[in-house]
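User: Hi! I'm a student and our assignment asks us to look at how structure tokens line up with a sequence. Could you show me two examples?

Assistant: Happy to help. In each example below, the sequence comes first and the structure tokens follow. Example one:
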Amino acid sequence: MAVTETVQIGPNEVAVEREHRGFHAPQPGAPMFDYMIDIETTGTNPEENAILQIAAVRFNRHTKEIDHKFFDRCLMVPSGRYWSEDTRDWWMDKPTVLGPILQRAEPAETVIRAFWEWVAAGPSICPRAFWGKPTTFDYNFINSYFRQYGLMQPFHYREAVDLNSYLLGKGHENRYEYWKTIENVGEAHNALNDCLYQIRAVFNA
């Protein structure tokens, strides 16, 4: 008689035969197809404003593991893109965050190509999931830069996961109160800190 045990598959607990367990549920060390991505920018228009910092962290939302080979690079403002003055004023109140970003800035094309290569080096068996808070901001900016520098978009738009919607689906109707329960990771508005903070929110949802 086959021996069964319960495994967690997404949000559901399912009884499967032990010998087939590995086919149904991610195990420790499983591939990481989830990518939490956060950017800092000079404004809110993805076609005209610029990205100042891109950070990304691979993770597995089922096993609650993260890949510590983070991506974290800063970008110069390329020709044709500009600062929104209200955003510049907003950043002026955060010199301890903005200063290191500007000091680490590299040519935009160099960074966006390095980011593409970092994404491509990850697992490719399953579609990569682009996580953003919200996707309408981060995804559109990243997509605009890929187009500008002639790079294929490695994240299909159908695989973009909006973190705000995910939390609503998990029953967190008052997202603002939920975020207060998540421990901060370093100083806010550093894109890498924000990625790790947002992953904590996913794992605790």
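Example two works the same way, sequence first and then tokens:
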Amino acid sequence: MEIENRKSEALSYMTNTSCFGSLSVLNYKFANYSPLDQIEANIRNHAMKIADEIAHDIKSNPKHIMLTGGTGRGKTHIAMAMAYYIMEKSEYSVPVKYKVGEKKNIRQAPIAITFVNWGNFMELKQDGINDRDKEKQFKLVDTSLKTADIAIIDDLGKEKANDWNFRTLDSLMEVREDQHIIVTTNLEGKDLRPLYGDRAISRLTKHVAGNIISFGKVRDHRMLEVSGQ
């Protein structure tokens, strides 16, 4: 019953504090990820391995995971699948230390994961200037991005380069530098630097060793659907 309660709270947190490009993202799991070839199978296995490591060591050894490659390759599916996998393997919990008198104890709290489509998030920030409800929603998502146990940023670099985007990511990475973060992007690191600056990208890639998953050799699934393959 405790696990089910934590599951309910964890899923509710993710739903309420996220900024999705499409609600279909909520259906993306490893169980319904069907590799078309060995390349995609290797990607799935690599992602599951990293997710398993995070699930067993959530409060230490921060990981920055980069899923890179062209559009339509399944990066978003893998990122969300990792979130669900981490939830399940951790039994939807993170250890939280608390003190009673002089005694230190540990309790299990619901895991907090937030998913943010970066382009939609930046639009929400812009719209919030003239809309109080959207401003309130932006602040909620922004806070969760900075405080969640795991933050997922989807489609980083898709939006137009400007000082607004530059400062937003820089501010976020100043806080999340030593926390778990999963990023999907169509760009490589060298292409992200002109958009967001050396400081933000340096922080973003600080814990990325061994955690870059390339979709460069994966075929565009959308084009395959169009061609009927």
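Here is something you could point out in your write-up. The mean pLDDT is 91.
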